[in-house]
Amino acid sequence: RSGWRGLIEEYRAYLPVTETTPVVTLREGNTPLIPVPYISNLIGRNVKVFVKYDGLNPTGSFKDRGMTMAITKAKEAGAKAVICASTGNTSAAAAAYATRAGLRAFVIVPDGYVALGKLAQALIYGAEVLAIDGNFDDALTIVREIAENYPVTLVNSLNPYRLEGQKTAAFEVVDTLGYAPDWVCIPVGNAGNITAYWMGFCQYQGEGRCDSLPRMMGFQASGSAPLIYGHRIMKPDTVATAIRIGNPANWDKALSVREASNGEFNAVTDAEILEAYKILGREEGIFCEPASAASVAGVLKLKDQVPDNGTVVCVLTGNGLKDPDNAMSNSEGGIKGGIKADLQEVARVMGFEP
Ligand code: F0G
């Protein structure tokens, strides 16, 4: 939509803000819903698959939707500093919006398990980055305690304003399609996003903006799938570091969403995630980060269950540029190097000259 003013202004009527709330925005939201014909064809039966490419938000992930609200409300409440635990994207978003609001941002990350682009963002936005010798779950435990005992506001998805902002992605899906899809496929870590999408669809249905509600289909990486195995994973592991989480903060909410939406949670292997990641790049021209590809891996895994003529939306939560290391190690055509700077020679390597 042209003249987009950011999601708080565009969806003000649906959000907990007043006329005097100091809106902190980078004009997030309004991300494209892109048809993916190659993936639709893999499923067949006239199923239409779209990706909600939330990697096109200002800091490159869906976290901006939650962060515009969380930082706006922190600012309104007079906070001077915010804190989060993060696998990378939350820290990038918190850092950017905190800077925008004139607040300090502390981010606690698992040392060695954050994609390079995300760390670079947190640093360039001026956050105070603390890398701990532990995983995301350890970091979250620490920041919860700190926020309880010191004058800093927690901006992880335990902060209810995060989910309020993130639910607007569901509004955009309905506004674009004109109806609610049959399935929404989402990568799940802490289960904040799947909870937020469901809130958004339910609210829109209540307002008469859509008739039906989707089934919420959540996907975790098989090495980090506590919601599928039904117990906490002490040493979560996956190539999709964004969702390397063994003890989801929104565990109970996730189970309620699954039940209320008649949804399903399933695990996808790292191999399936990387295959979907490569298909998106090579066949659709869409570059997401590995965690995001779990949504597409999921619909491909369950393709026989998708209803005939159905509409499926897969959420691509983060931009592929966040994780250059995985892109380099998982791309098929390597760089042809060592070529002389010579027209004939380049044409020969291209196969146009003998
Ligand atoms: N996809 C990406 C790219 C993420 O960064 C995350 C979460 C998720 C999916 C899962 O969303 O937690 O709401 O179920 N990243 C958090 C972070 C943990 O710190 O950036 P969720």
TrEMBL record:
Pathway: Amino-acid biosynthesis; L-threonine biosynthesis; L-threonine from L-aspartate: step 5/5. It catalyses: O-phospho-L-homoserine + H2O = L-threonine + phosphate. Catalyzes the gamma-elimination of phosphate from L-phosphohomoserine and the beta-addition of water to produce L-threonine. Residues 82-125 form the Rhodanese domain. Belongs to the threonine synthase family. Its cofactor is pyridoxal 5'-phosphate. This is Threonine synthase.
